[in-house]
Amino acid sequence: MGRTVTIGDKHFKPYISSKKMSAAVKKVARSINKELKNDVPLFLVVLNGSFMFAADLLKEITIPCEISFIKVASYQGTSSKGNVSELIGLTEELQGRTVVIVEDIVDSGLTIDKLFGILKRKKVKQIKVATALMKPGSYKMKHKINYIGLEIANDFVVGYGLDYNGQGRNLKEIHVLAT
């Protein structure tokens, strides 16, 4: 696997290989293709962190679908700010649609909770959540996370779209904060 990297004032060591991430993405795609085969879902990609996962995931989706993007923020440095602000909104008509929220990582669930509120007001048919990574020990919300690539401990990670103060998203492997 890769090498230890320094981003800003922090050191990160290899944690999840790109090969393991690729297998996890394919597992998620197989589940979505099977479960939503009679639908035309809208994949709602949460930027910025989900761009790599979304690109890899959607290459594996074989059912008809649409893709849109939303930008929200809840992190500053290595911890959640505790609130979520919508930065770029939706333009698609969502009433009666199946929406699959595509997340890079689900930890506290604040972003998911905010998006569920927005989407329910738009009268969607159903909401599904696909995430590359899940921190079950941190998740505080009641919404079901339907498609999980990998579960991880409550550690701070970067790479594969995840960042530390805007850097590290370009790493093809996941790295964890070295202690």
**What is the chain-wise order of helices and strands?**
EEHEHEEEHEEEE
Strand order across the largest sheet = 5-4-3-6-7-8
N→C terminal distance: 19 Å
The global form is: globular
The secondary structure category is: alpha/beta
Computed over alpha carbons, the radius of gyration is 16 Å
Taken as a percent bin, the fraction of beta residues is: 35-45%
Number of helices: 3
Runs in which pLDDT lies below 50 for 5 or more consecutive residues are none
Mean pLDDT: 91
Plain-language structure description:
The model has no long low-confidence stretch (mean pLDDT 91). Helix 3 links the parallel strand 6 and strand 7. Strands 5-4-3-6-7-8 form a six-stranded mixed β-sheet. A four-stranded antiparallel β-sheet has the order 1-2-10-9. The chain has 179 residues and is of the alpha/beta class. It has three helices and ten strands; from the N terminus they run E-E-H-E-H-E-E-E-H-E-E-E-E. Helix 1 crosses helix 2. 22% of the residues lie in helices and 37% in strands.
Question: What is the compact description of this entry?
Answer:
The chain is α/β, with parallel strands linked by helices and 179 residues long.
Task: List descriptors.
alpha/beta, 10 strands, 3 helices, about 180 residues
Write the layout of secondary structure elements.
Blueprint: E1 5-7, E2 10-16, H1 18-35, E3 42-47, H2 51-60, E4 66-76, E5 79-88, E6 98-106, H3 110-121, E7 126-134, E8 147-151, E9 157-158, E10 174-177
Parallel strand pairs: 3-4, 3-6, 6-7, 7-8
Antiparallel strand pairs: 1-2, 2-10, 4-5, 9-10
